[in-house]
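Possible race condition, two jobs.
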Amino acid sequence: MLKPARGNRAQRPGPGNHQSGHHRPKTIPLEPKADAEAQTVSFALPETLAPGKYSLSIEFTGHLREQAQGLFFVRYSAGAGKKLMLATQMEATDARRMFPCWDEPFSARALSRRHRSEKAPDGLQHAIKNEKSLNGGLKEVHFEATPPMASYLVVLVSGELEALEDSSKGVRYASRNDRSKKETGRYALESAKKILGYYNHYFGIEFPLPKLDQIAIPGGFCGAMENWAGLLTTSRSCCFDPRPVRWKPNKMFLA
């Protein structure tokens, strides 16, 4: 905070907050005031804050829907039964549906996440810092902090996926898919290495992240999303089966 202030505002409502001063930690409970039309939440401060560094902690809950806005769920068939996975679609202004944030492209922030799920699924976003097992068959995954980035490029996927992996020039590549379609992601994996290398040369700027995942979402997801380090597509747009079939996408379409 660069000047004295009596209030703060962010996108997406949340019911509580914690704040600490720069020298001596101090907790100030605040009441949120939500504006549904503006899609913001404000916190009036009981006292004027001097310029300095502060933290704002908000406890919040959200709604999980099947519509691809913010964090959503996907039902799909795999093997002998039905499966369920989680994925995100933040563009243009749906990151605020998942967590409170300054949900504007000009407000780039470093982001760090903890994700809890059943032990079997994989949580995907940025590089994993550590993970641990919890009671009740759960696991918690703590991701490394991202470089400063716009909130609409955040991605989180949790599901029973398998990956084909490779690396080139310091970047780890992965094509992640439903377990029964793992091998159909190989063409997309090889194409990504060639295309990213071409872009690095063409623009004269190296890809700034340590990893690049291509994640195929079965059904329930329209088009594709260019999330940073985690590109989401439909299975149809990411999978190439070299075996003769009645219809299949051509390589030009996939690339």
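Job #2 (started ~2 s after job #1):
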Amino acid sequence: MKKTLVIISSFICLALIYFLFSPLDYVIYLDQYQLQQRIDKKLPLRKTSLRKFDITLNNAKVALREGNDRIRVGLDVKFDIKGSKSMQGSLGVTGGLKYSAQKGQLFLTNPLVEELSIPGLFSRRDSALRRALIKSLQYYFSLNPVYTLREDTLKHKAARLVLKNVIIEKQRVVITLST
């Protein structure tokens, strides 16, 4: 009887050690709707840039493209240029994903303005507005994660260590984390 208990206890200890120290992958699937909801919660965004522009971003439209590791977000944009009239239009921005293991959060990073359509925009102002937009977007995305791992489950706590892979597949962001 004692021998059986020792064998069972040893087996349980070995299984526990294996479970705790073997690498485990944890996969998170985020669809466009989930990303859209998270971004919508933080909009509209108003920011003053270079003390010359007031920028308002609103009405995000998230798009995921198969085979691309960047998320596309379309936004309505309004510029209030000091000493001039306000201008409204739209912009398309893409961003990669960056994982903060310390916070257990995913952020959009390295925003690129791929499309900027504002009627009446002068070409000499275009580059200054693009720079102001990129700064506003970097600020917004650095403070607002698109996903946060929950702290209330052991599975999420264990998965907070290393980002292994991020791909867009079947209109979903597939995030693989490894312990």
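The two ends are 38 Å apart (CA to CA).
Logs attached separately.
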